[in-house]
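Local shape tokens

___
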Amino acid sequence: MSRKSKRAVGIKYNEAEPSQAPTIVAKGYDDLAEAIIASAKANGVLVHEDPYLSEFLTTLDLGQSIPEPLYYVIAELLAYSYVLQGKVPENWKQAFPGIEEKI
């Protein structure tokens, strides 16, 4: 029985350029995937495991922007990671007064 190889993909969102889509900054399989995940965790980067998303993202080249059909998926993951870190985007503060006290 063959075992599926582990995949890891790192994406980066440049907060200084919010109009740019996140880009692929790391990707790998098996041992390299484990190293990418370990490095992310060691540096306080949140790790999300989704075999379907990682399968698609590994088809992209390093430095390539994520495609438009994935904008909402990635945006939701980024927003969720910000909330987990206690960060609240400015436009959320305006739209939902008092949100910072609830996080």
Summary: Helices lie at 30-42, 51-57, 71-84, 90-95, 99-102. The longest helix spans residues 71-84.
